[in-house]
Every structure is written in structure tokens, then in C-alpha cells.
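Task 17 of the worksheet. Students: predict the tertiary structure of the chain below and write it out as C-alpha cells. Keep your answer in the requested format; marks are given for formatting as well as content.
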Amino acid sequence: MFTLSGKEIDMPDRDVKTIRDLIYYQYAKIIAKSALGVDAKKEAYGFIKTTFRQLVNDEKKWSEILREDRQLVEAEKKCVYCGGTEDLQWEHIVPRSLSINERCPSCDKIQGIHNQIWSCKTCNMKKSTKGLYRFYRERHPEAKRLSDILPALLEKKYLKTIYFCHLCKGTLEATGNGSGLSVLDLDL
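Model answer:
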């Protein structure tokens, strides 16, 4: 286990070696949870591993982000973080102030609808420029696994956007700091 401010963070599978692997592993867990229910990680580890390997080996592709954009349009209009319905605004999941290189201010992956979700003004201000996993870890320090509390739509949009940010930064093949990777390594 990795710790952050004394809190344990669940580590991914031992086959997860790079940032790219970690993104695919998180996505495989979402697929399993969607297909098999909330206890999928415990009861369908083989399904997660198979899906992860298929994603890594390019045998399976994740859906185009347009699918999540449609889900967002069809979903009830409420804050993705707290469920509130007052003072809603568009929130950029990956902070739009991200500055990996000179293309970020005009990058459609960061600036466009693919990276947006409904948030109330209060949650948007609290999240500010934090990465999704760090924000959730601070907001829910009691949670053993962030994947248990993250809304699937939010995490899927985040993973698909942050993938391109890591690609642009040249860190998809990064292996962490020698102590293994955690989801917090996905936040830029």
C-alpha cells in the first residue's frame, strides 16, 4: 500500500508498470463494475485482468469519448461531486490551466466538452486545479478505494482526457518513483 498523509491508497495490480497500464487498469475496473456490479473487483479479478491485457495489447479499444458526452447530456443535471442542483456550471475535470506545453491553452482535449462535467460552484472552487484523484482523496479520506466512490462517467472522461495529456507530456511509459504507481500518479 502507498500512503498519502497517513492514509493508505490501494495499489493497482502487479502487472501495472507504467502510467499507460494504470490508465487501462482503472478503465478495466470500470468496465467490470458496469458489467458485474459493485463487488466486481473482488469477485471478477480474472475479468479485470483479461480486459486490462486486451486494452494493453490493443485487442480491445475503449469507446470514443463521444459516448460519455452523450451520457452526460442524458444524465440528470446535477453536481457530479456532491449531487447538488444549485449554481451549476461547467467544470473542467483536467484543469484547463494545465500547462504541459504551449498547445494546452488551445487543446480541444483539455478545453473542450470532452473534459467537462456539471459541478456546483462550491465544488468547482474546492477542486480548483487539483487532479481528480487527489481531490477525491482529500474529499473522502475515509474511503479505502477511490474507485468505490468515483462516478463511472466522471472517471471515464478523466481517464480518456488524462491519457492524451500524458501522451503529450511524454509520460505514458513513466514507471513512477520506484515505489510503484498509484492513481495519484495520473494527476498532472
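Marker's comment: The first strand starts at residue 2 and ends at 4. The chain has a mean pLDDT of 83.
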